[in-house]
Amino acid sequence: xxxxxxxxxxxxxxxxxxxxxxxxxxxxxxxxxxxxxxxxxxxxxxxxxxxxxxxxxxxxxxxxxxxxx
Length: 69
What we know:
Elements: E1 5-8, E2 14-17, E3 38-41
Antiparallel strand pairs: 1-2, 2-3
């Protein structure tokens, strides 16, 4: 089983738990605090802190709740 888990939050971000690296389109790594247990990645596109979630999905009307299977 992988040490990294990605959960889809209803009408919200992707929640990434466990060790991972996040790179931009040029291969540059975003700085991540290794002591932080999880990171929320924006799915709505309205965050002012992209690629990270800042809670903007709550007021921009974003709706998405994909289900596996």
